[in-house]
Design goal:
The chain has two domains: about 1-35; about 55-200, no CATH class. It is rod-shaped, with a radius of gyration of 42 Å. The chain has helices at about 1-25, 25-35, and strands at about 55-60, 75-80, 85-90, 95, 115-120, 125-135, 140-145, 150-155, 155, 170-175, 175-180, 195-200. By secondary structure, the chain is an alpha+beta fold.
Amino acid sequence: MAITGDWAMMDCRITAAVAAAVMLLQPGVLAAQSSDSATVDALANLVAAEQPLSLVGVAALNFGDIAIPDNRDALCAYDIASDGAQSVGENNQNFGEGPSPSQCAFRSGNADRAQFVLRCQQGQQVAFKLETRSVTPNGSDVFFVSFEDYIEVAGKSIYEWDGHCQDSDIAVRLGGQLLVRGTAQPSNGNVEVGTILLEAFYQ
């Protein structure tokens, strides 16, 4: 019986110890004993919005007053280069700025290239795609065409330009060539001889 009493007393002590341990694990007890906190910053780098790419046409390609060849079988070629230089050819022969045997010649000083303004994100690389269409007010007697060779960007040939956007507007100019047969009829003022579609895009 004495042994049984000892075990009963030990059991009571163990029960009390367990109860005390459980009390220590309660949230309120731990909170009263220890707490801590920490602070960190919230950061952001604010940058300017990216410049959307835009290309705006500001002036038409103008061949000015040009002569119809006085020979019905002749073909005049009027050329305005990417740098604005003008030249005249007849039947695949180049006569520079002067008149040809069939009197092909620029007759006024108002011929000029088409002009565009390019705006884009500085440092971005840009390429161009060119499409032209000939409009024939005199049937097949007049034919207009232009190629990438006729494009000038920022004062340089498209092949010499580095292809990167600047932090300011970029001037884009475009020349072309107009073929006129001796059978063409005089026009009453300026007439549309073609259309130009120039596309700029990021690479």
